[in-house]
Amino acid sequence: MLEAPRKGSLTPMTRPGTPIEHWKEVVNDMMKAYKHEMESEAHRIFREAAGHKPKAVLPQTVNPDEETVPGIEHPGSTGVIYCSDRAIANGFSYASAHDWANMGQGAPEVGPIPDALPRPQSIPVPEDSLEYAPTTGVKALREAVANLYNVQYRKGKESKYTYENVCIVPGGRAGLSRVAAVISNVYCAYQIPDYTAYDQVLGAFKRLVPIPTVLDQENHYKMDIKQTKKDIRTQGLSVILASNPRNPTGQVIKGQELDELVALSRESTTLILDEFYSWYIYPEEGEEYGQSISSAEYIKDVNEDSVIIINGLTKNWRLPGWRICWVLGPKNLITALSQSGSFLDGGANHPLQLAAIPMLDPERVQIDKIALQKHFKRKRDHVLKRLYKMGLKVAHPPNSTFYIWLNLESLPAPLNNGLTFFEELLKEKTIVIPGIFFDINPAHRRNLVDSPCHHFVRLSFGPPMKDLDMGLDAIHRVLKKARTHGMKPFGHSYKTSLDGEITEEDHDGING
Ligand SMILES: Cc1ncc(COP(=O)(O)O)c(C=O)c1O
């Protein structure tokens, strides 16, 4: 929390625990918390982006000013694209990227880290690999994935994965799309907040009906498994989608609770568990490095329990550019995914599938997993410590992923909402992701300030340490400005003109 400025003097550094009540007194009337999004410049700019107009309760009618290509409708950008467009409007470009801190980044640093094994700098392209690969992927890679899961999570269990339980896909989102394309006309539950792309992926496949549930801070953003069990019966939920570990809260369902969750798959409900951050688990005092989490550990019969696991090289192997991922599940799911892959994406890149096989060697994996956990835990602890020193205490520090879900409610308005905090940091050459992108249908909400994610931003500690420090310095500058000048400099003067300056190149490396 920030300390209120004393009249005529610069306040010293903030002290955690200082009451915020003082702030409230010094905030002048016009700067009170926004009651409606239209009072906020940051929110008005958000509404101007294509696909972000509010949609009424009535069926959507296409906005003729926005949709000029007949029959084409913008689905609304995932958070990362909107945030990068706003960064570009504030002077970010591919050439100037090194002057910017990208704490919005949804990808881990890809360079060498201490004790991790080197990754290939070049890959062979044998003639066979110039052919299409099967839509379910190269058999040897499917076998390598099945073997890795059996070694990591199914030791001593009778039912084991085989290649027939694995479908290789060109990235996690392609995997999600393939799965979404084969879900029939059913209720599909998901939680808020969760990974931004679920909104669009679920929305693109009109047959399934998405049913959101809001996760509470008081409950550590945990999914209430008892309630879910009830909902399955009373609401007729057929499919449940969740990331675990969860983006953006950094919380993980494990042990007994994960066991209970997996048990739901034996009650005629299909669980889709997005386990992209399964290695980003940070041991507590006395616990060992090298443990990872997967629902695969709790499945009884790999062909009977309806659990669909999505994972890949993107995060754990720190290879987002390879676009080699997989879906793991009952054999009968894999044959359906082969069919949706044949019209959606045609399969993953053939030479990179071959190059991925040695990366899945269990011994190699264990070395990389430990190196990754040590390195990212150091970064997590560093960022949390600096935030704390600035008076920004994280209620539930992440025990997994590389994200911090930061509640800004303790700051004075308008810095206390994610979209304004984001705009203020852009002025300081730093990118974070406003919380509303992790809400259901953020662009279609009629009043964005009512979103349960309105007061949050997601900070990523995926980038290298020096970039994190640049971003933290920027946050410090914003808070210092607030202490010395009050709230007058905030909430306005945002650059909106893109002046046709955005090039494809400016977007390079921005994804995830
Ligand atoms: C939970 C989760 N699932 C899937 C993905 C996407 O993976 P990919 O980049 O392989 O499409 C991400 C990326 O940010 C993610 O956070």
TrEMBL record:
InterPro entries: Aminotransferase_I/II_large (IPR004839), AspAT/PAT-like (IPR050596), PyrdxlP-dep_Trfase (IPR015424), PyrdxlP-dep_Trfase_major (IPR015421). Keywords: Aminotransferase, Pyridoxal phosphate, Transferase. Residues 99-475 form the Aminotransferase class I/classII large domain. The keyword Ligase does not apply. Gene3D superfamilies: Type I PLP-dependent aspartate aminotransferase-like (Major domain). One of its GO terms (molecular function) is transaminase activity. It comes from the Eukaryota. Its cofactor is pyridoxal 5'-phosphate. It holds the Pfam family Aminotran_1_2. One of its GO terms (biological process) is amino acid metabolic process. The keyword Cell membrane does not apply. PANTHER family: ASPARTATE AMINOTRANSFERASE. Belongs to the class-I pyridoxal-phosphate-dependent aminotransferase family. This is Aminotransferase. The lineage of its organism: Eukaryota, Fungi, Dikarya, Basidiomycota, Agaricomycotina.
